[in-house]
Amino acid sequence: MDDEFEELAAADAVGALGEDERLLLEAEAARDPRRAEQLLEARLAAAAFADSVSEVAPPPQIREQLLTRIDADPARPRARRRWFALAAVVAGLAVVGGGAYAAVSQLSRPAAVVALDQIEKAGDAASASAELSGGGEVTLHWSAELGRAVMTADELPDIEDDRDYEMWFVRDDGPVSAGVFSEEDDAIALIDAEMHAGDVFAVTVEQAGGSESGLPTTDPFVVIATS
Amino acid sequence: MLITMTDSGDPAHAVQTDDGDPVDALLTRIAHRDKAAFAALYDQLSARVFGLVLRIVIDRAQSEEVLQEVFLEIWEKADRFTADRGRGRAWVFMIAHRRAVDRVKSAQASVDRDVRTGRRDLEVPFDAVAEDAEVRVEGQRARAALDTLPAAQREVLAMAYFDGFSQSEIASTLSTPLGTVKTRMRDGIARLRKAMGVSER
Description:
The complex is a heterodimer. Chain A is an alpha+beta fold. Chain A has 6 helices and 8 strands; from the N terminus they run ααααααββββββββ. In chain A, α2 packs across α3 and α5 crosses α6. Chain B is built from 9 helices and no strands. Chain B is an all-alpha fold.
């Protein structure tokens, strides 16, 4: 396996892996810091190719455009923070407003927001995020004690109307579906599969309602390790 | 396919500085929304990044778009970067490489790979750039490291890195067994790791 992992890490470092293999590799690395270091070193070594390329001066206006962009574009609040704020506000109102209000608010709040609130209050609350290459972000929040997990996401890759996002837990014996959702922005989804310690969370694009075979049919666009 | 690496540098400059890496320091400041640091990073690395993107994407207009994407991503994600012994430049290049390859792959259907490869042989136009001392040192170190690779190893790695070939595409292009391609990549990266001084923390 050591050899195989090294082979995969080397191929990944130069971008030669398919997404399936990359998912396996990242899952391995997420479980074992030694593997994670191996993977990082392979990627650092591959930077030699970038450093060997001749420099080419970009047109000067690009610099100006970029500086204007970052000036005009203040740090965007991330989906995760927005959802936390929402959960906190609703929880706060419930306390202030007393029992009756709390009951109403429980009813009117999406189950996922309620679950997120519960997870946040659990002693073993944990979360992990991954940024997408397109600028979006996906965060998994979980509590092993409660056995619950919630995903929040923003700016996901666009999908056709007849497609959904499907969430997965990837384990040694393969991926297990963890539910579907369709919001591209400000998505929040309660995960309807039991999470196991060490699971790797992934999201793929599938036909509406989820993959028929119960296995992912496309490459995951995000992978999050929970260990 | 012919892959050439030129070394036009002065080896006296090929010394690695171990502490106070300037790119790491800039990225740490960028994570705190320091716009001057962002401008400084751009000035230091944009020509190298643009050279890399152009080498992979070929089309100039698209390469300019990718260059912008890369630096915006750096601005957005710098808070994810952990400064560590000069890993900042590699981090920047990883973002650039991934963005450039993504761009090529998304345009793959409309562009014949042979045409791209053919144009590659014409060489990317080189605009005269006064190389920053730091950039020059790193470039020499990288070329020296690549020179330690046997040609067969360098070839398969470069085909993947610059041309976005998968391992099986490389195997069929070179009429070489897939297992051999995998082994060459593994051995090449192992050798590069040593030559680049990338080691366990």
